[in-house]
Amino acid sequence: MDILISNTSGKPIYEQITSQVKAQILSGELKAGDALPGIRTLAKELRISVITTKRAYEDLERDGFVVTVPGKGSFVAAQNVELLHEEALRQTEDILQQAVDAARRGGVTREELFQQLSLLWEEE
């Protein structure tokens, strides 16, 4: 599991961990049943507080991405298709909001933005 922490990011460290683990699960890089590093191990590797790592794991568990088994560790949860779809929609909404904000600042019209999105969609 690769996690990169940015000290210049506006996001708290636990959110950086959470979003990167979710992205690895959504992409299939981490699969159901895969073990995550222990809280202390990850904290040591990233040179951060155990409390920060614990918060990230708790958030991942709360959101249904991780299951913690006392005495054994944390594992990637079997994913509910609806949960994956909902998370993808949430991430897409965040990114599209940034695009809309940039378009408004730059004087790009709604129609131009829709046209750009359609062109990008067709490129895939």
Automatic annotation (TrEMBL):
Record-annotated HTH gntR-type domain positions: 11-79
Transcription is among the record's keywords: yes
SMART domains: HTH_GNTR
Annotated PROSITE patterns: HTH_GNTR
InterPro entries per the UniProt record, alphabetical: Tscrpt_reg_HTH_GntR (IPR000524), WH-like_DNA-bd_sf (IPR036388), WH_DNA-bd_sf (IPR036390)
Pfam family, one: GntR
UniProt keyword annotations, A-Z: DNA-binding, Transcription, Transcription regulation
Coiled-coil region(s): none
Protein name: GntR family transcriptional regulator
Gene source species: Ruthenibacterium intestinale
